[in-house]
Design goal:
By secondary structure, this protein is an alpha+beta fold. It has 10 helices and 10 strands. The relative contact order is 0.18.
């Protein structure tokens, strides 16, 4: 299935699911003007056809003391078997939150959910030693701030002046103490993000209203930042662009965030400490949309861009934003 095979109703449903895939079918039905049964049938088809690859709950890592990071790797020419061993190793390690395969100057990137810099360093040393024969180059960055924006491009909607942000890490965040039942709810939602509240209550031997109240608490206090899904990279064209700026004055950063928040195809922005200053992830229905964004961005910030490195995303192998204490 290609993007052209998705009609306007499919795109509206994808847009609604991007707001929250846990909202009831009746609400989506009301928002887009089709029956609840038709909504369910179309969502099932989007999942069965692989348009939606995975549903993900977004947990605020700052509340659990996680030191978020991103590691970019380029590989030597090697056998597919050895490359697969490396990728499988990353996928199977609990401390690895995300693994993405790409094309460009890097072959993949991944993140570790560690809350101790020495443990992160130790695990990275293990990786770099175990696979030293195939790792050509590595760049390690620490995540300072994240912005996860709505997929407004799906319905050609102009971005709001201050769009919603479901980013999993903010530089300023008030930590909230949570109960044991909250930890259990988060663990269940990470394993099965679309599970019904009644089933959570049964699994935890609790009542439905208690589960509803605890989820509302987690959402209200920003511990659950939101809900998202991963799209098929063969359907929606995805790129991550690494940016190094010649100046990191506050006005430049503010201007950049403001500009990116107005671009409908920009879905994720990360502020780094390390080799790069930012990464920008775009999704597009066609390559022209992506190229237009790149051209406009480079014109807008031509005085500040030192490096502009596009990576074509061709497979998100793993995404699990569960803090280490809950695994």
């Amino acid at each position: 299935m290609l993007t052209k095979d998705l009609d306007s109703t499919d795109l509206k449903i994808l847009y609604e699911l991007d707001k929250s895939f846990r909202q009831p079918y009746t609400k989506i039905s009301k928002n887009i003007g089709i029956s609840k049964q038709a909504v369910k049938k179309r969502i099932d088809k989007l999942v069965d056809n692989g348009i939606i690859k995975k549903f993900v709950i977004i947990i605020n890592m700052a509340n659990f003391g996680v030191i978020p990071n991103q590691v970019y790797i380029s590989l030597h020419s090697t056998s597919e078997k050895r490359k697969k061993e490396f990728i499988d190793f990353l996928i199977n390690e609990k401390v690895i939150a995300q693994v993405t395969l790409c094309e460009g100057i890097y072959d993949l990137f991944f993140g570790i959910t560690g809350d101790n810099i020495y443990e992160i360093e130790g695990f990275l040393s293990l990786i770099f030693t175990k696979f030293s024969d195939i790792i050509k180059e590595k760049k390690i960055t620490i995540i300072i701030d994240t912005r996860l924006f709505p997929r407004d491009y799906l319905i050609d909607k102009k971005r709001e002046i201050i769009p919603s942000n479901k980013g999993f890490h903010q530089r300023k965040f008030i930590k909230h103490e949570i109960k044991d039942i909250d930890n259990k709810i988060l663990r269940i939602l990470c394993i099965n993000p679309r599970i019904q509240v009644v089933d959570i209550a049964l699994e935890l031997d609790s009542n439905v209203q208690t589960i509803i109240n605890r989820i509302k608490f987690l959402e209200k206090n920003g511990i659950i930042r939101g809900y998202m899904y991963l799209t098929n990279e063969k359907i929606m064209i995805q790129h991550t662009i690494l940016i190094e700026l010649s100046s990191m004055e506050n006005n430049v950063e503010q201007r950049l965030f403001q500009y990116l928040s107005s671009c409908p195809n920009v879905v994720f922005v990360v502020k780094y400490f390390g080799e790069y200053n930012f990464s920008i992830t775009t999704e597009s229905k066609n390559f022209d949309e992506h190229r237009r964004f790149c051209d406009n961005f480079k014109k807008e910030f031509s005085d500040y861009i030192k490096s502009f490195i596009p990576l074509f995303i061709h497979d998100i192998k793993k995404m699990n934003l569960l803090p280490p204490d809950l695994k």
